Amino acid sequence: MLAARLPAAERASRFARLRFRASSQVAQAHRRTGDDDVTQNKDTADDIDIAHTGAGPSQPGLSLKVLHLIERFLLSVVVLLTVGGAVSEIFTVVQAMSITLADILLMFLYAEVIGMVIVFFADRNAVFVYPIFIAITALARLIILQGKDMAPENILYEAVSILFLTIAALIIIRVRKR
Predict the structure, then answer these.
(1) Residue 42, CB-side half-sphere exposure with 13 Å CA sphere
(2) 94-109, pLDDT tens digit by residue?
(3) Sign of the CA dihedral 142, 147, 150, 151?
(4) Helix, strand, or coil here: 148?
(5) Model confidence over 27-74: pLDDT tens digits?
(6) CA–CA–CA angle 12, 18, 24 (5° rounding)
(7) pLDDT value of residue 80
(8) How far, in Å, are 16, 66, 70, 165 from residue 63 at the CA level?
(9) Backbone angles phi, psi at 124, to 5 degrees
């Protein structure tokens, strides 16, 4: 509310001061952790609460830690549910004493979800591509399993979707390398 009443030049000046303060907080965090190469660590001033206007004490570190804990908890739940689904599918295959193509493709989907979580913890930059790979696998599974019963135009739509997802993954990978 207060920011809306300030002239544009003063708002810009205040934002620049807050941005500078946030970037110096990031630099201090790098010094505390012993990380000399700031360019290798992908933390930026955007990770700090720059919207704080000085009306009270800011605790960006605490809020980030809480969000990271929530994120880790939810990812752990995803892994547990995925492993539970895979174990359930294995029991179903053992009880039926037959393995179908659908079972194999479903196990690939489970493996990709777990791989996505592993990559997320190892390298947060590659995470955006894994959901695309999962979508491609899911669409391919759908085409393979329902190909005979589907209308030809639906198969074409799904194939074009796979093409678009592949192009999107290639663009994301190329942009990340720059």
Answers:
(1) 5
(2) 999 999 888 898 898 8
(3) positive
(4) coil
(5) 555 455 555 444 444 444 444 444 444 444 456 788 888 998 998 899
(6) 135
(7) 95
(8) 22, 5, 11, 34
(9) -70, -10
CA separation, residue 170 to residues 82, 95, 160 (Å)? 27, 41, 15
Residues 6+ apart with CB under 8 A from 120: 75, 127, 130
Element (H, E) at 122: helix 101-122
Tokens standing for 156? 């074409």
**Which amino acid, one-letter code, is at 178?**
R
Helix (H) or strand (E) run with residue 66 in it:
helix 60-96
Give the integer Cα–Cα distance in Å for 155 and 160: 9
Structure tokens at 103: 């079972």
What are the domain boundaries of the chain? 1-54, 59-178
Query: Whole-angstrom Cα distance, residue 109 to residue 131?
Result: 11
∠ CA 88-91-93, nearest 5°, is 110
